[in-house]
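Objective 1b. Sequence-to-structure analysis of Zinc-ribbon domain-containing protein.
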Amino acid sequence: MKCPNCGGSLSENDIQCPYCDTFFDTYDDDYQLGFKIQKVNPEDDKINILILLISIITPVGLTVAVVYYLIGYVKCAKASLIAAFTPLVLAIAGALVFGIAELIKAL
Ligand SMILES: [Zn+2]
């Protein structure tokens, strides 16, 4: 067994890392970005089309993604995150195309 924090080798019964003093009851694989990730039934982690459509409004989508992530619906969180960034990517792509077109006209 290895310490998830520093990678030091541990015995199976250690509750605290002898190298970096991390306690394992407060630090395990379920933690990501400092938040406890709950284990959810994968069948419950279904993408809801309605929520996905609402997520296209970027601030809403980002909020939905964070909430989904915190309650453990990782697949839904990723889908909402992608939806949230879609209009942003389209806007940048549109601006680029429009900018290049203007540039060509100016030549
Ligand atoms: Zn350690």
